[in-house]
Amino acid sequence: MPEARLRWPLSAVLVTGPSMSPTLRHGDAVLVRRGGRAVRPGDVVVAVFRSRPDLLVVKRAVRPADGGWWLYGDNDLVTDDSRAYGVADVIGRVVARYWPRPGRLPSRRL
Predict the structure, then answer these.
(1) Which residues are CB-contacts of 66 (< 8 A; sequence separation ≥ 6)?
(2) Is the pLDDT of residue 8 over 80?
(3) What is the pTM of this model?
(4) What is the pairing mode between strands 44-49 and 29-33?
(5) Per-residue pLDDT tens over the stretch 34-79
(6) What fold is seen in the domain 2-99?
(7) Which residues 6+ apart lie within 8 Å of 93 measured at CB?
(8) Alpha helices in the chain (DSSP H)
(9) b/e per residue, 27-56, with b = 16+ CB within 10 A?
(10) Is residue 2 within 8 Å of 49, Cβ to Cβ?
(11) 12 alpha carbon, distance to own chain's centre
């Protein structure tokens, strides 16, 4: 079960790869909240693609789709998102980056 990967209401996740650049970079550490307010378009989330249940990803929520979410990375040159893998199930929302540049993440209107 994907939710087991984030056992606590607030968990740390390490970003790998360039798909969320410039918002998040490879090596950034973020805090992810399970529960709380509902996901909205523009939120940065941690999710699992239904077609790749073994892969935990950090992406931006674009729109609800088929009981899950359609997700995109912020880096348009990398398409390892819903364009390649389809609908994802969101596990939690990224609420802040805590390392190496602490701060809240900018929201994007979609």
Answers:
(1) 87
(2) no
(3) 0.88
(4) unpaired
(5) 988 899 999 999 999 999 999 999 999 999 999 999 999 999 999 8
(6) Umud Fragment, subunit A (2.10.109)
(7) 32, 33, 36, 37, 39, 43, 44, 45, 46
(8) 82-85
(9) ebebbbbbeeeebeeebbbbbbbeeeeeeb
(10) no
(11) 12
